[in-house]
User: Fold this.
Amino acid sequence: MPPVKRKLFRGKRNPFAIDAPLPPAGAARWATIAGLVVGGLVALSVPIFFALFLLGILRGE
Assistant:
């Protein structure tokens, strides 16, 4: 029997989908993309800084 493909969100909307389109080509589009990139980098760095902070507290520094 072939494997059954199951959708992650069966019959429901994907909560991670972004429905808003990017602005038309130009400065607004590049500013939006830059903002998304910066926001993603900040979101990735938060757990790292938290782990370093917690490690420093646990070591007694």
